[in-house]
Amino acid sequence: MIRLPDGTGGVREYRPRPARPLAPTGGALTSRTVFSAAHVVADPHADSTPDTPAAVDWDATLAFRRHLWSQGLGVAEAMDTAQRGMGLDWAGAAELIRRSAAEAKAVGGRIACGAGTDQLTGPAGLAAVRAAYEEQLALVEEAGSQAVLMASRALAGAARSADDYLDTYGHLLRQASEPVILHWLGPMFDPALDGYWGSADLDTATDTFLEVIAAHPDKVDGIKVSLLDAGREVDLRRRLPEGVRCYTGDDFHYPELIAGDEQGFSHALLGIFDPLGPLAAEAVRILDTGDVKGFREVLDPTVELSRHLFRTPTRFYKTGVVLLAWLAGHQDHFTMVGGLQSARSLPHLARAYELADGIGLFPDPELAESRMRSLLTVYGVSR
Asked: What is the pTM of this model?
């Protein structure tokens, strides 16, 4: 029995559950293309502060990517899950891209890397935004990775109309040597992206987004939509040109969106598939056989945990992701770049542990319980 804070100043008792046996790992998934947006592991021994460049434990960070590849998942690298703009600067992201792309090549893993404009540290004009995107796109492609054109805070600040988005993305897509993934990240993940695509009205913004894709369908592999609105994603998915994929980034409704309907389905590029990697792979392997019901039986019980981790302020979901990586034994500490381990309350972390344990997420429940007890002790919760 473990005593967990209840959020009201008291504690409650929780009895950890036995490990849930997972299906064996296997080869590539066949019915869906699935990326896990992966976190970075901080170096806990570095003498760093939130204001200094991130100190990354490269061995542990790459080991976690090998874990995801071993499940048959792709890795979406240097995305917001890796704390781009929240502790990891462009220099750190560039090194991460180079190292992870080389590791992917060595082990035969699938990888897509984020290209943005976060080397710009202040207000910038459209020409500077374009140049920043070009620099990052070139690095990603030179590393041998598919590119994800990430939503840009700098572009959101510089653009004055939808035409500015059409011109900027059109220029970048013409420059891309291979089809890219376009990323629409909603303001719940980053408030600076409010009004992206030139309008705060999502219907108008959607029309602009689709206009970008329609003008260059041969340069767009797919779109990642992170708006936490399943109905809007389905509508957008049905309006895509043939051959352009929708990668759901909806961490609230992913089972139904991946399962799809008679008119289509979403692939996946999800931050929640960082902690859920083995369960996600097991579920999709079931779906590969055509068993939608079995797929939902594995994945539906994970939604409560995902909704908890991604509750508002949504951008701090990374704290819960790293907590679970520590509890699951993928890293030796609960430290994050930028000190972001402090971004969620102890009751929030305790509930994340309880929900993860409840779905059998931890390969070693005793290790997870021991580590959770040590965290509780640090916070002054008696045994």
From this structure: 0.95
